Amino acid sequence: MAAGKEIQKGDVLLELEDVHMYFKGVAALSGVSLKIRKGEIHSVIGPNGAGKTVMMNCINGLYRPQQGSVSYKGERVNHLRPYQRAKLGMARTFQKVEVFGGLTVLDNIRLGRHLHYRAGVLSGAFYLGKAKKEEIEHRAFIEEQIIDLLEIEQIRHKPVGMLPYGLQKRVELGRALALEPELLILDEPLAGLNLEEVEDMARFILDINEEKRWRVTCLLVEHDMGVVMDLSDRIFVLNFGNMISDGTPDEVQNNPEVIKAYLGEEDLYATRR
Amino acid sequence: MSTTWLPCGKYHETYTQDHAWWQTTFIRGKMIALFAVLFVGIPLLADDYGLSICNNVGYTVLGALGVQLLIGYCGQITLGHAAFLAVGAYTSTLMILEFPWPQALLDWGLAYPISILVAAVVAGIWSVFFGLPSAKVKGFYLILTTMAAQFITVDFIITQYVSQIGGRGQAFSLPVGTIKVGPWVIDSDLKVYFMMLVLSIFLIAVMVNLLRSRVGRAWVAIRDNDISASVMGINVFGYKLLAFFVAGFIGGIAGAFWISNLAAISPEHFPWSWSLWLVGVILIGGVGSIHGTVFGSIFMVVVIEALQLVIMQFVDTSWGSRLFMDFLFIKEAAFGLVICAFMIFEPNGIAYRWWQAKNYFNLWPFSY
Question: How many CB atoms lie within 10 A of CB B312?
């Protein structure tokens, strides 16, 4: 959907170069560099307070790093605001669900498609022609592609604020998908879910990464090591704003520095299983 | 829209049906009955006093719609909406009085309708100007900046400068026959009533349509969660300004409409307490509900009128006449009391009670 040249599978989609982010003397990120290639699931792990969410906020524009560059598809996007980056094809979900509680599930997902709607104030006000036509078209898309994928048919008319947490997370994923993004930032999509919901969510993430219809590059922030190791193509380890390691799950698992800094002396899988 | 209860065994087969306004025969019948009452019943049955109450309700609805849009749907709390009504009223009045209209337009009765449109646009732009602080401030701070709109517009610019135009003094009186829509000279309560009805229904329809299309959803998103709205690709500041424009536009229409009911307009018709009153109307009716705007307007106007009628019964006694003379203050006190009562006992407003009642009867008599 975005301008610029087409990115092939395996090319660098998003690049952070030496990103520094300070909050009044507290260095949240000090010189982080990261390359995310099209088509992969790239995880970011690290202890609490390592700066993972700050990093996500720098990537999609809620924060602007004081130093360093964020480039998307080879273009520097530091100066762009969040909504402009969304236009380039970035979507995200939040650690604490940030759904629109007063709206129904359907309306939340429609909001995710905001950029694909075209109607302005006038055609909206009279609900004729374009506005009416596109509402029907997008409704069909949402029903057939997103609601069907995420299996939330039975709650589509319920206000999201009244739904349990696990379903709210699912709706938030649906809302991000409705944007038809190229890069999807998932900030702890599994936090607070029960085992069954974790399995569902992991399946959805794999689906949207691998299915031909979506092929979305995912940037995953997660604490659940089992899922991270199973899903990720690459893992980036962050500690106190510094990169410790960036490599395949095997490399990271066997990296002594990671084990020391993040996992202690115990086995990597001990956190969950 | 789509949460309508369908009768047993009936299902929608297309998305168009699911997006329709009036989805069942019962709702269609109900709405037609409502229109019949509004367009035929009330004009036939009500006397001038009744009609003037209806006109007051209509004016309150038109004024409160913009406030509802800003507070109820976009989350931008405003306490200066009367300023935009005033801008609308004065723009329209000045155009009628001072603009060199071609005779043909006057003959066809287009001068006033055109002036309403211009007034709406001017009020909208004026409103955008006072919406600019919303880029940086939220909540309480925004309330203060919108109050500035009231004081700068009405107390300063209109009272001090605009009222001097033409050297008429404080009040602008509109000569008989200048308020003309097409072939009709708006000179009786009945004609004002019909104009009010057409404008209210039109603007309510516009609001409902906006809220179920792209623009309205963006507003609600900003109200509920502006950070995730911006991440979804919504230009938050742009849509806030658009909300201020549309609210000012509706306010301008309301103000320009109201001059048809006034022999003369002066700044005193648009005091700050009127801005506050409009906010009270949506608090009582229900924030974030179009029904609430209408219910709140009816409730407030009728309560005040009823109070006045009660006091009138005792106007012969000494305390009664005293109360009657002080009615303006009693009105404000009653307004305050009603708002307190609603905040304590029904913070969701009348619209919520309406919704509950409707749900009860939808399942009646097996409501479990």
Answer: 13
**Structural domains in chain B (count):** 1
Structure tokens at B158: 């209109």
Q: A120: left (phi > 0), else alpha (psi -120 to 50), else beta?
A: beta
Is residue B85 assigned to a domain? yes
Domain locations in chain A as residue ranges: 12-89+181-271, 99-163
Phi, psi values for residue B58, rounded to 5°: -60, -45
pLDDT in tens, chain A (273 residues): 444 556 777 788 999 999 999 998 888 999 899 999 999 999 999 888 888 999 999 999 999 999 999 999 989 999 999 999 999 999 999 988 888 888 899 999 999 999 998 888 888 888 887 888 888 999 999 989 999 999 999 998 889 989 999 999 999 999 999 999 999 999 999 988 999 999 999 999 999 999 988 899 999 999 888 899 999 999 999 888 888 889 999 998 888 888 777 666 555 455 554
Cβ-Cβ contacts under 8 Å, A136 against chain B: 15-16, 19
* B145 found inside a domain: yes
Domain that residue B201 falls in: 49-270
Rounded CA gap, B98 and B253, in Å? Answer: 19
* In-domain check, residue B96: yes
> Is the minimum CB–CB distance between A114 and chain B shorter than 8 Å?
yes
Strand-pairing partners, residue A26, are: A23
Query: Which of B224, B233, B288 has the CB atom closest to A83's CB atom?
Result: B233
pTM of the model: 0.91
B171-187 pLDDT, tens digit each: 888 888 888 888 888 88
Q: Which residue of A has its CA nearest to B21?
A: A127
In chain A, residues 93-112 whose CB comes closer than 8 Å to chain B: 94, 98-104, 106-107, 110-112
Give the gap in angstroms from C-alpha B160 to the nearest C-alpha of chain A: 35
In this structure, the number of other CB atoms found within 10 A of the CB of residue A10 comes to: 10
Residue B346 is assigned to a structural domain of this protein: no
> Domain A12-89+181-271 is in which class?
alpha beta
